[in-house]
């Protein structure tokens, strides 16, 4: 299943997802949430994974750490290699040594991702001591440093507080601090700003930018917002209906999106300084994942659709310069 | 936490007042002359007159209540005519035996109910889940007095492992081991129904928290699944289970009436049934008041424990 | 993620054909229904069944075991036919349990409706009284009431219904409060319907599922507990006999003839577990999101 652009890149990536298929079975119906996804993240690289709700971006990210609830979800095909170790077939023990250590996660809603009955300190210390041989006291000191690193005021006091005593933005900082506890090589962030107030969103985003510059870890950043991508990421992967439809370097994709879906997503972003421009909303809804149409899944909503789009499987075709699109007429405009 | 404690303590006051009113009302509502009812049909007119004065029966009802509750507060529950003994002595002695029985049952309920509920939730849709779910339903559908009789037939009469009744052996009994030996069957029979209830509530609460985002967070930290289930999921689920356990203690104290009757356990439940038979109304009154008051305090303790377990309740 | 989320269907609709279909599709609930229907049928047509008289004493046939000729379930300590007594006892036990449930449901639901609908002082006064009832351990309050009223089947039934009132009051109050804050009750108010009319024509039909579910979960206890009071000698008095008195009478002969106690107890267990299966199924069918 390896496509050309992946094979062509120099050096082995940190994370290499190949042909990943994660399906959900609900009352006998199979939902192909993720169906044949290839994805690379190089060391230190920031990859943005973009798509609407239900495009499979979150399921892809959760599949990496095998955090898909089974039942109903199941990885039915493909491999997820972290520097040569396949996480799909890895033993529970190997997997647990990777989780929170080499690969850490930041989730969407900080109001629900922290355990409400354990103090902030307990939750961070637990993460540290799982992977590092530190005394309780040393781990607590490290936890305080981490809170400082994400700019939480009065860190010593916060350690003994409970999640409900903190604001949403502060809680997300705690979650980020926790994720950084063991200096992960890869940080997966699943829409970490979506649930927050607009002003807080910007602060958290700035924090991500700062941390990446300072720590240099690789980042897989999931979002439905192209605006966020431009500030933070090196490369972008666009998903639609469980498949990758386009991937490209960030500067190129804004200049010249190749897939009509990518173009429409970019049009949704309010351009800076343009004031109250009418935002384009993509008409229609993504297809039901248990009844995917033949051919291009985006065809029903596409503004340049033609008869050939609805026939047969369409491949993700490399277009040079690290760009690839799953479209028979890349770059077409109405 | 202190504000919560004070508020919760203040809530208990009207409830205890209501309980005392109802228990006091038992005497007022009894048809006929209360003093005669209390003293039994062989009482002399002098005795009846003396008791009427003692109970302030010549005064209005609210004064009767004041006089009664003042006595009760000082530990004076009156004198049981059928046992010819202060009610207080009898009920405290009997209640100790009931607490031993219900307390042991509670330990079984908590161990069995929580374990079954956790295993069923973790193994949802697997055979363990079905087995425990049906087992819990069978447990809570069984009349405990029937289960007690079956235990006697099987484990005492046929297998001869345990004594059929009583709390101590007639000869040389009364040591801790002897009492424990007498305790096994009644405590288990009493515990099974409540265990079913706790298993069901534990299962549904665990299923809910196992889907919570913070459980996924815990998994993403690389923690062992046992640790995730206990420290993250169960630690949250127990918050909602604790008050249910408090309520189940009420069912244990009530169910003890059957079990004590079946197993001849010298507790307060059997005393109450006997007292109703002999129309010893003061004994019934004192017994009901003691158990109900203890139950109110037990539920208070359960609520406080819940607040200790959940930081969010403390600040509300 | 919405596409893969098995989003539960929100229904608070009144019970209808869909509910029935969901109920019988649940295998345990269907089995429970069959058992209950059979027990009810047998109890109803007891006079028509070819059974010996349940009260005929036969000293020559005392404590015969299960499977004796002419007495499939044996005989009791007075030589009376156990099967016949079981069938006739069912009439008493079931009637008392069901009546107790209806009384508790009626009074408890009224309390809950008024408390939830009028709120404020009415709510406080009613629910604090309910709290006091709840402050007594379940069976203990029933025993206290029997002590006051005197032992007897009717008194035991009254006592058991009183101790169950709080379950209905609380559940119905909760549902009523939710409904009263909803829009269509506002609409009814805007149309200036009388309060009673809103309460009984708009609110009551919508809290009916809650009442039914609470009935289905409590009727089993009520049958068990009234039988229990009879077992203790505080319920049915001779010559009336329900399953509880049969069980209690057999206790003295448990060494020689355990079946005299075990059989009526098994009948209670069978009915109660069937009720619980149906109750669980009913709850899931009426409110799938509770599953």
Fold and architecture overview:
The complex is a heterotrimer of chains A (334), B (316) and C (291). By secondary structure, chain A is an alpha/beta fold. Chain A is 31% helix and 23% strand. Chain A has helices at residues 4-7, 57-64, 92-98, 110-113, 120-131, 136-149, 155-158, 168-179, 198-215, 226-232, 250-255, 260-267; strands spanning 15-26, 29-41, 46-50, 73-82, 85-86, 103-106, 186-190, 218-223, 235-240, 243-249, 317-320, 323-325. In chain A, the strands form two sheets. An eight-stranded mixed β-sheet of chain A has the order 6-7-8-3-9-10-12-11, sandwiched between helices. A four-stranded antiparallel β-sheet of chain A has the order 2-1-4-5. The two termini of chain A are 32 Å apart. Chain B has 316 residues and is mainly α. The model of chain B has no long low-confidence stretch (mean pLDDT 87). Chain C has helices at residues 17-25, 27-44, 82-118, 120-134, 138-149, 153-180, 183-190, 195-231, 243-250, 259-286. Chains in contact: A-B, A-C, B-C. Chain B binds chain C through residues 14-16, 18-19, 21-23, 26, 29-30, 137-138, 140-143, 145-146, 149-150, 152-153, 157, 249-251, 253-255, 257-258, 261-262, 272-273, 275-277, 281, 284, 288, 291-292, 295-296, 299, and chain C through 128-129, 131-132, 135-144, 146-148, 151, 220, 224, 227-228, 231-234, 247, 251, 254-255, 258, 261-262, 265-266, 268-269, 272-273, 275-277, 280.
Summarize the helices and strands and which ones pair or pack:
The complex is a heterotrimer of chains A (334), B (316) and C (291).
Chain A: H1 4-7, E1 15-26, E2 29-41, E3 46-50, H2 57-64, E4 73-82, E5 85-86, H3 92-98, E6 103-106, H4 110-113, H5 120-131, H6 136-149, H7 155-158, H8 168-179, E7 186-190, H9 198-215, E8 218-223, H10 226-232, E9 235-240, E10 243-249, H11 250-255, H12 260-267, E11 317-320, E12 323-325
Parallel strand pairs in A: 3-8, 3-9, 6-7, 7-8
Antiparallel strand pairs in A: 1-2, 1-4, 4-5, 9-10, 10-12, 11-12
Helix pairs in contact in A: 5-6, 5-8, 6-8, 8-9
Chain B: H1 2-29, H2 34-39, H3 45-54, H4 61-73, E1 79-80, E2 85-86, H5 87-122, H6 127-141, H7 144-158, H8 176-210, H9 213-220, H10 225-263, H11 268-277, H12 281-309, H13 311-315
Antiparallel strand pairs in B: 1-2
Helix pairs in contact in B: 1-4, 1-12, 5-6, 5-8, 5-10, 5-12, 6-8, 7-8, 7-10, 8-10, 9-10, 10-11, 10-12, 11-12
Chain C: H1 17-25, H2 27-44, H3 82-118, H4 120-134, H5 138-149, H6 153-180, H7 183-190, H8 195-231, H9 243-250, H10 259-286
Helix pairs in contact in C: 1-10, 2-3, 2-10, 3-4, 3-6, 3-8, 4-6, 5-6, 6-8, 8-9, 8-10, 9-10
């Amino acid at each position: 299943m390896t496509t050309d652009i992946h094979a062509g890149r120099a050096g082995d990536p940190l994370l290499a997802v190949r042909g990943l298929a994660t399906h959900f079975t609900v009352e006998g119906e199979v939902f192909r949430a993720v169906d044949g996804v290839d994805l690379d993240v190089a060391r230190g690289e920031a990859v943005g994974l973009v798509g609407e709700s239900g495009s499979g971006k979150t399921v892809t990210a959760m599949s990496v750490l095998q955090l898909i609830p089974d039942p109903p979800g199941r990885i039915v095909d493909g491999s997820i290699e972290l520097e040569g170790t396949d996480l799909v077939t890895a033993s529970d023990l190997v997997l647990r040594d990777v989780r929170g250590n080499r690969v850490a996660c930041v989730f969407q809603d900080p109001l629900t991702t922290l355990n409400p009955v354990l103090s902030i300190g307990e939750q961070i210390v637990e993460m540290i001591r799982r992977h590092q041989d530190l005394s309780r006291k040393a781990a607590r000191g490290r936890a305080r440093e981490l809170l400082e690193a994400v700019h939480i005021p009065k860190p010593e006091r916060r350690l003994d507080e409970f999640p409900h005593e903190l604001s949403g933005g502060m809680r997300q900082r705690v979650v980020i601090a926790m994720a950084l506890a063991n200096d992960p090589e890869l940080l997966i962030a699943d829409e970490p700003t979506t649930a927050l107030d607009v002003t807080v969103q910007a602060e958290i985003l700035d924090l991500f930018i700062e941390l990446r510059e300072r720590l240099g870890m690789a980042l897989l950043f999931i979002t439905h917002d192209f605006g966020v991508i431009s500030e933070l990421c090196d490369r972008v992967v666009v998903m639609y209906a469980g498949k990758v439809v386009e991937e490209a370097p960030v500067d190129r994709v804004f200049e010249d999106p190749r897939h009509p879906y990518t173009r429409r997503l970019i049009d949704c972003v309010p351009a800076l300084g343009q004031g109250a421009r009418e935002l384009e909303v993509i008409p229609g809804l993504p297809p039901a994942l248990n009844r995917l149409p033949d051919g291009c899944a985006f065809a029903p909503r596409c503004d340049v659709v033609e008869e050939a789009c609805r026939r047969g499987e369409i491949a993700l075709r490399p277009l040079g310069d690290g760009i690839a699109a799953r479209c028979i007429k890349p770059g077409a405009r109405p | 936490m202190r504000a919560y404690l004070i508020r919760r303590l203040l809530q208990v006051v009207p409830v205890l007042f209501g309980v005392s009113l109802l228990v006091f009302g038992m005497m007022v509502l009894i048809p006929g002359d209360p003093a005669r009812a209390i003293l039994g049909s062989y009482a002399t007119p002098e005795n009846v007159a003396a008791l009427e004065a003692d109970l302030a029966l010549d005064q209005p009802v609210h004064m009767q209540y004041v006089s009664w509750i003042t006595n009760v507060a000082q530990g004076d529950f009156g004198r049981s005519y059928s046992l010819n003994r202060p009610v207080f002595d009898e009920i405290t002695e009997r209640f100790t035996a009931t607490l031993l029985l219900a307390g042991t049952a509670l330990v079984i309920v908590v161990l069995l109910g929580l374990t079954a509920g956790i295993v069923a939730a973790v193994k949802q849709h697997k055979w363990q889940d079905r087995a425990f779910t049906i087992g819990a339903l069978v447990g809570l559908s069984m009349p405990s007095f029937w289960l007690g009789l079956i235990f006697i037939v099987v484990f005492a009469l046929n297998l001869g492992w345990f004594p059929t009744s009583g709390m101590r052996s007639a000869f040389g009994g009364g040591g801790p081991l002897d009492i424990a030996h007498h305790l096994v069957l009644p405590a288990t029979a009493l515990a099974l129904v409540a265990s079913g209830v706790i298993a069901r509530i534990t299962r549904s609460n665990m299923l809910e928290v196992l889907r919570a985002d913070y459980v996924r967070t815990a998994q993403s930290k690389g923690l062992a699944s046992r640790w995730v289930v206990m420290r993250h999921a169960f630690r949250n689920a127990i918050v909602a289970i604790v008050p249910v356990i408090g309520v189940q203690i009420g069912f244990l104290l009530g169910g003890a009436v059957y079990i004590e009757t079946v197993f001849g356990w010298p507790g307060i439940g059997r005393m109450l049934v006997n007292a109703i038979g002999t129309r010893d109304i003061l004994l019934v009154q004192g017994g009901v008041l003691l158990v109900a008051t203890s139950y109110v305090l037990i539920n208070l303790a359960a609520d406080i424990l819940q607040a200790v377990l959940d930081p969010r309740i403390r600040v509300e | 993620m919405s596409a893969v989320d098995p989003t539960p269907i929100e229904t608070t609709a009144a019970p209808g054909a869909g509910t029935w279909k969901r109920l019988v599709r649940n295998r345990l609930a269907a089995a429970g229904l069959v058992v209950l229907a059979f027990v009810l049928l047998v109890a109803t047509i007891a006079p028509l069944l070819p059974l010996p008289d349940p009260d005929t004493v036969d000293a020559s046939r005392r404590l015969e075991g299960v499977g004796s000729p002419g007495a499939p379930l044996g005989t009791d300590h007075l030589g009376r036919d156990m099967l016949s007594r079981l069938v006739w006892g069912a009439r008493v036990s079931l009637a008392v349990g069901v009546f107790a449930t209806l009384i508790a449901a009626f009074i408890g639901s009224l309390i809950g409706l008024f408390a939830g609908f009028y709120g404020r002082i009415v709510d406080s006064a009613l629910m604090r009284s309910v709290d006091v009832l709840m402050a007594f351990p379940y069976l203990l309050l029933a025993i206290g009431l029997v002590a006051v009223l005197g032992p007897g089947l009717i008194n035991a039934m009254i006592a058991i219904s009183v101790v169950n009132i709080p379950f209905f009051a609380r559940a119905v109050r909760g549902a009523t409060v939710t409904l009263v804050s909803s829009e269509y009750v506002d609409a009814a108010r805007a149309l200036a319907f009388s309060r009673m009319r809103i309460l009984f024509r708009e609110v009551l039909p919508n809290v009916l599922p809650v009442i039914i579910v609470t009935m289905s979960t409590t009727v089993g206890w009520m049958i068990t507990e009234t039988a229990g009071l009879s077992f203790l000698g505080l319920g049915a008095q001779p010559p009336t006999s329900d399953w509880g008195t049969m069980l209690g009478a057999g206790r003295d002969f448990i060494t020689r003839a355990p079946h005299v106690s075990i059989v009526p107890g098994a009948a209670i267990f069978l009915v109660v577990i069937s009720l619980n299966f149906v109750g669980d199924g009913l709850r899931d069918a009426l409110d799938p999101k509770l599953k």
